[in-house]
Structures are given as C-alpha cells and as structure tokens.
Design brief:
There is one protein chain. The chain contains 11 helices and 15 strands. By secondary structure, the chain is of the alpha/beta class. It folds into 2 domains: 150 residues, Alpha-Beta Complex (Quinone Oxidoreductase, Chain A, domain 1), CATH 3.90.180.10; 141 residues, 3-Layer(aba) Sandwich (Rossmann fold), CATH 3.40.50. The strands form 3 sheets. Strands 3, 4, 5, 6, 7, 14 and 15 form a 7-stranded mixed beta sheet that branches. It binds NADP nicotinamide-adenine-dinucleotide phosphate (NAP). The site of NADP nicotinamide-adenine-dinucleotide phosphate has 30 residues, from helix 1, helix 3, helix 4 and helix 9. NADP nicotinamide-adenine-dinucleotide phosphate (NAP) binds next to helix 1, helix 3, helix 4 and helix 9.
Length: 324
Amino acid sequence: MYSVIVNKYGDPDVLKYEKTNSEKIEDKSVKIKVHSCGVNFADILTIKGRYQERPRPPFSPGLEISGEIIGLGKSVSEHKIGDSVMSIMKYGGYKSEIVVPSENTYKIPSNMPLIIAAGFPVTYGTAYSALVTCAKVKKGETCLILGATGGVGVAAVEIAKALDSKVIACGGSNSKLQSCISKGADYVINYKEKILRNELAKLKIKEIDVVIDMIGGQYTLDAVKSLKWNGRFIVVGFASGNIPNIPANRLLLKNACAIGLYWGELAYREPKTIKKDFLKLEELYKKKLIKPMNHKIFKLENASEALKYLLERKNIGKIVLRVN
Ligand SMILES: NC(=O)c1ccc[n+]([C@@H]2O[C@H](COP(=O)([O-])OP(=O)(O)OC[C@H]3O[C@@H](n4cnc5c(N)ncnc54)[C@H](OP(=O)(O)O)[C@@H]3O)[C@@H](O)[C@H]2O)c1
C-alpha cells in the first residue's frame, strides 16, 4: 500500500508519497481498499500542526475516503466484504488502504459514484449539521452563507435551498459566486469588493435568520449586526485566519444565539446521529435536490499540488484525490 506522509509540520510541499505497511484490523474496524480521498481545508492546517487535531509526525492527513471493504474485524456485523462505503477519520485518509472504526463507515447513497462519495461526508455532513441540527432552519427563512464558494459553502447553499430557505451566498470572487447561483443561491455578495450590510440594504434584506460562517474575522462581525430577532449564528470555521470576538450585546439585543460546530468530533461522539443525517442527505440526493460534484480530481501522489490549489483559492467546491 501507499501513503502520503507528513514527516515534519509545514506547507503542502512537506508531503511525501511512500510505500507503507498494511495495518492490522481491530475487532470493531474494517479494512478498506481506498478508491478516492476528499481534500479539506482542515488538511492544510493539520499538516502545519495548527488544527484542533494535532497528530505527531509521521502521520497521514485526510478526513474522508470512499472505497471497498476488503477486511472485517471480529465484532463487525453491519458491513460485509465487497461493500462500497465512505468513511470518516480524524486524520490518516490519504492512503491506498485504511483501517477505520466500523461505526464511522457508512453505506454510500445509492447511485452515488465512489469518486463523488469520497468528497461527500465532511462537506455535506457539516453543512447539514450546521443548518438542520444547530440552526433548525425553517422554510422561508433567510440564510446567509459566509464562504459559500468553498466545499462546505457550496453544500450549504444546496441544502439550504433544498429546505426552501432564501439563500444569500457570500464569497470573495465573482466567477466563483456565479457557481453558487447555479447551485440555487437567490443572491450573491462579493464581500471582498463590497460591504456586506450595504449590499443587504440594496437587496432590501433588513435582517437574517441564520448565518453559517466558514470565514471569521470582520465578515463575522458584519454578519452578526444583521441578525434577526431569534437569529442563529453558526460558527463553522475561520478560513480568513482570523478568529473573531462575537459581541455579546449584539446577540442579547436580538434574542439570538451563536453556536459552535465541530463536526469531525461530533461524528466520533455521535456516530448514530451522523448516520441518520446521511440517510436524510441520501433522500435529498435521490430527489436531485442536492447534486454533489468535484471541481477537480488529482492523483493521490500529487496531494501537495491539490492542497496548494486549495490554498490558492482556485477551487469552487470540492477537490478529491484518486488512488489509481
Ligand atoms: N467546524 C467544522 O466541523 C468544520 C468542518 C469542515 C470545515 N470547517 C472549516 O470551514 C472552513 C471552510 O472549509 P472548506 O472545506 O469549505 O474550505 P474551502 O473549500 O477551501 O473553502 C474556503 C472558503 O473560504 C474562502 N476563503 C479562503 N481564504 C479566505 C480568506 N483569507 N479570507 C476570506 N475568505 C477566504 C474561500 O472563498 P473565496 O476564495 O471565494 O473568497 C472559500 O469560500 C475552513 O476553515 C475549515 O477548517 C469546519
């Protein structure tokens, strides 16, 4: 088998593609021949040693994979050899073969190709938890998505639209925002060029029910000011590199709440909840209300190129690594 390895923390260039030994199967684990691996912003931070999860080198990055089960632990009954599955892990996904807990391994939604399933769990799982579990978004409510052009953002646009909310997609590039319109966004705002609150005023949108924030920094502070009475602000990430201090008075004045979401940890603590969420997402997929797609596919051995592409903000939505 082959693995992409971090021998010391640093930029994507530190990654090495090496032949490694096959891992032993634990009782409650499955062994998977990996077809493809999803690439996530968090991988860049993990490689730098600057993510919540801080494995010591040597390790492999990677939070999600798709593939075929080739081995079963003694206590596994819910999967069988040959099943096509997708799986999530705290790190270690950039491999051609992997051993993962059975409870973090899920059936692939019917008719979803393996190459799409590799990039599905983290982005769609996170966006679904943010909108449904945390924000409890209702039909007709207004959702503002900060970082709508990224992997989680595009998924959030689609899911919010599938739930019949009014979607305002915010990002830093006009061409990328056009893709958000094709994904169903009602309005787009380029927050790099325009001031968020001025643009909302021009659109005659006075207040926002739900904010899903992947960006942080000044964008968060601007969006908090626009919350409606009983508004919900969901903190998902800080792609701007700036962790904001949300002013408590703004929440108090609107009877609003700010909720943090750490989906990767939630998925490990509550795998049954996540399984239910994936079944709900499968329903949306079958009805073609969500249409996950990959923006670009790289080979596993070119993982550093893929991460540099993400770092340069060239992606619209998801990037995956294909093993062969
Ligand atoms: N809490 C959780 O459980 C969880 C789960 C998944 C992801 N996340 C976090 O969510 C964030 C987005 O993840 P992703 O996978 O969607 O990443 P991604 O695909 O790389 O997208 C990043 C998004 O951030 C924007 N962006 C990048 N750098 C920026 C900057 N310096 N200033 C402003 N905007 C910037 C990009 O938009 P433009 O280029 O259009 O500006 C893009 O919309 C990351 O911080 C990630 O760690 C958190």
